[in-house]
Design brief:
Layout: H1 3-9, H2 13-35, H3 42-49, H4 53-59, H5 63-82, H6 89-103, H7 116-125, H8 127-153, H9 163-182, H10 189-200
Helix pairs in contact: 2-3, 2-5, 5-8, 6-10, 7-8, 8-9
């Protein structure tokens, strides 16, 4: 094997560092979803990922910094799955959300995993987490507002509602539904989604 071929087959230092960081984040996603936000220790996370604490601190300042990185990864995946612009607009978003609820994909927290109150409690303790979560909420609101704006242009939604405020309303409804479901409230999500779309639908002449 030539020196050039051997070098080509080896990872660069930068790529190895990126792979380590990704492995730790992916492990955090798995363990937090399984054991809750405060469940897995840093030692358990490092052991599960196959790295030492020293490797962990190369990439993250502390647990909060790590949680922000995990939140970013989960949030990005959620945005890509549920809030992707499509011809279906807001009704398509509602359909994707309901399907995700039925299949257990949303709220990405299986039984025993991260609960809404744990996330809010963590945000209350950590200004860093709170700032990042609020930024994520803002991104989600903007995505929904885009869907509303598109629906208005297509004549699918009322034109006398403000898209940004409507985006805030829809996201608030989703977060509120998540909290109520976690408390065991028997919500009829399909009926509530249809009612919301009826309220936003074009008025009859």
């Amino acid at each position: 094997m030539s020196k050039k071929t051997a070098t080509k087959g080896r990872k660069t230092r930068a790529q190895s560092k990126l792979d380590t960081r990704d492995a730790l984040i992916e492990t955090g996603m798995v363990l937090f979803a399984k054991e809750g936000l405060d469940g897995p220790s840093l030692d358990a996370i490092c052991e599960h990922a196959g790295f030492t604490r020293g490797a962990f601190y190369v990439h993250f300042r502390d647990r909060d910094d790590f949680l922000v990185a995990v939140m970013d990864r989960v949030g990005t995946q959620l945005l890509d799955r549920l809030l992707t612009p499509s011809e279906g607009g807001l009704p398509a978003l509602m359909a994707r959300f309901l399907e995700a609820c039925r299949t257990g994909e949303y709220p990405l927290m299986p039984a025993g995993g991260v609960r809404p109150y744990q996330l809010f409690d963590a945000c209350a303790r950590s200004p860093l987490l709170r700032e990042r979560y609020l930024a994520f909420v803002k991104m989600c609101t903007s995505r929904v507002a885009e869907l509303v704006r598109d629906g208005q242009q297509r004549g699918m939604l009322r034109k006398d509602v403000d898209p940004q405020r409507c985006g805030t309303l829809v996201l608030s409804a989703i977060l509120g539904a998540q909290a109520l479901l976690d408390l065991g409230s028997p919500l009829a999500l399909e009926e509530l989604a249809l009612e919301l779309l009826n309220l936003l639908g074009p008025r009859e002449a």
